[in-house]
Write a structure and sequence with these properties.
The protein has about 350 residues and is α/β, with parallel strands linked by helices. About 30% of the residues lie in helices and about 25% in strands. The chain has 2 domains: about 1-120 and about 250-355, 3-Layer(bba) Sandwich (FAD/NAD(P)-binding domain); about 120-245, 3-Layer(bba) Sandwich (FAD/NAD(P)-binding domain). The chain has helices at about 10-25, 60-70, 135-145, 160-170, 190-200, 255-260, 300-320, 325-340, 345-355; strands at about 1-10, 30, 80, 85-90, 95-100, 100-115, 115-120, 130-135, 150-155, 175-180, 205, 205-215, 220-225, 240, 245, 250-255, 265-270, 275, 290. Strands 1, 2, 3, 4, 5, 6 and 19 form a 7-stranded mixed beta sheet that branches. Strands 8-15-9-10-11 form a 5-stranded parallel beta sheet. Strands 12-13-14 form a 3-stranded antiparallel beta sheet, with no helix packed on it. Helix 1 packs parallel to helix 2 (about 60-70), helix 3 packs parallel to helix 4 (about 160-170) and helix 4 packs parallel to helix 5 (about 190-200). The two termini are about 35 Å apart. Bound molecules: flavin-adenine dinucleotide. Flavin-adenine dinucleotide binds near residues 11, 14, 31, 33 and 86.
Length: about 350
């Protein structure tokens, strides 16, 4: 099957890119390995921050319904493959996929990679015991499938994900025994931290996990204080009775497909790790292969949606489509992205983009 554009990943970036392309009249095939489209939005029951324009005060799942409705306006131009994992990407714009044990090939004139990110792990003794989860997995279990991961949880990491998932665990009736953070400060929004602190959760700074304890699954965890080099301080160990350790220590862009096709990828710590070197049109070093959203640097759904819109317009232009008022539209979208990246929480991403050396 051949389409004008294949989008790999149907999170907020992929969905908004699709919506722009469809509006312009371009045929789109949207592929996602999950059962549902929406990426991270499928599990985000909390209300978003930011400006009204970027859907602040709306829940992630409601933003998803809104994006999905937009796509349904173009049934003749859109093909969606869910439960389909892209396992190969080749220079002739051939994409190979697996769905229901079937392996098949698709091709396109242009490809947009919007694969998002994967959760980072943490090395400690017994970190492979059942009961050690990544925070996103816990969120999927609870908010998508209605399953509690356990009864007593230690959260590791005080970024927004660790703070939000701690709160959601409590909403589900799970006891959050405490939260450990290796740095000397909370790294997420203080409003989230205050909320869980008020509910009685201890937040231990300069502290991490030494080991998980248990035979067939987690029965307890040993935590210890860290020195200023983030090394454990012997003698400060403390044992907590928990059945779940939830790791929320950051995300890494999922660039494997881009590396496979030979696109230039650079390591930029501030953007979360390896990211494709895209130009200001969000095109990678490979002609007609674009990338947007968390795969180009860990940010937020609000920025992923704007980057998706920009990428949709840029891809259509590259394929020779006429896009009315495209200069004004792109200027406005870049301006909206700049606004989102202002303030202290945007400083990391601003530094990362400066290292990339383009005006994204
Ligand atoms: C707990 C939590 C809370 C958050 N809260 C907020 C918030 O309040 N406000 C905000 O703006 N942002 C928030 N974010 C961040 C936001 O969710 C992400 O930045 C955003 O989802 C990134 O969008 P994306 O489309 O790039 O990637 P994703 O949403 O991750 O989507 C990527 C999609 O690609 C698919 N995929 C990956 N590889 C393949 C493959 N090989 N084949 C097929 N499909 C593939 C995945 O299944 C996934 O559906 C939060 C994130 C988390 C985890």
């Amino acid at each position: 099957m051949h389409k004008e554009v294949i989008i790999i990943g149907a999170g907020p970036a992929g969905l908004t890119a699709a919506s722009q392309l469809l509006k312009i009249g371009v045929e789109v095939m949207l592929i996602d390995r999950n059962d549902l489209v929406g990426g991270q939005l499928t599990k985000q029951t909390h209300m978003f921050f930011g400006s009204e324009k970027q859907h602040a005060s709306k829940r992630g799942i409601d933003i998803l319904t809104m994006l999905d409705e937009k796509l349904k306006q173009y049934p003749n131009k859109l093909t969606v493959f869910t439960q389909t994992t892209v396992v190969g990407l080749y220079n002739d714009k051939v994409v190979t996929c697996i769905k229901d044990d079937r392996y098949f090939k698709l091709s396109a004139d242009a490809i947009i990679i919007a694969t998002g990110a994967s959760e980072k792990s943490l090395p400690f003794e017994n970190n492979d015991l059942p009961g050690v989860y990544a925070a996103g997995a816990v969120q999927t279990l609870m908010n998508v499938y209605g399953v509690k991961p356990g009864h007593k949880v230690l959260m590791v990491g005080s970024g927004n994900i660790g703070l939000i998932v701690s709160y959601q665990l409590m909403q589900a009736g799970v006891h959050v025994v405490g939260l450990v953070e290796a740095a000397d400060h909370i790294s997420g929004y203080l409003v989230h931290a205050s909320k869980i602190k008020r509910l009685g959760v201890d937040l231990w700074m300069n502290t991490s996990v030494k080991k998980a304890i248990g035979v067939d699954s987690v029965e307890a965890v040993e935590i210890w204080q860290l020195d200023d080099q983030w090394q454990g301080i012997p003698g400060t160990e403390k044992q907590l009775e928990v059945d779940t350790i939830c790791i929320a220590v950051g995300l890494a862009p999922l660039t494997e497909l881009l590396q496979q096709i030979g696109a230039e990828v650079v390591y930029i710590r501030e953007l979360g790790g390896n990211v494709p070197r895209v130009n200001k049109h969000y095109e990678t070093s490979i002609n007609n292969v674009f990338a947007c959203g968390d795969v180009t640097g860990i940010e937020e759904a609000s920025s992923a949606m704007i980057a998706g819109e920009i990428t949709g317009i840029e891809t259509a232009l590259k394929l020779g489509y006429h896009v009315p008022n495209h200069t004004a539209k792109l200027t406005q979208l870049h301006c909206d992205l700049d606004t989102l990246r202002q303030g202290p929480h945007g400083s990391k991403i601003r530094q990362g983009i400066a290292k990339l050396g383009v005006q994204l």
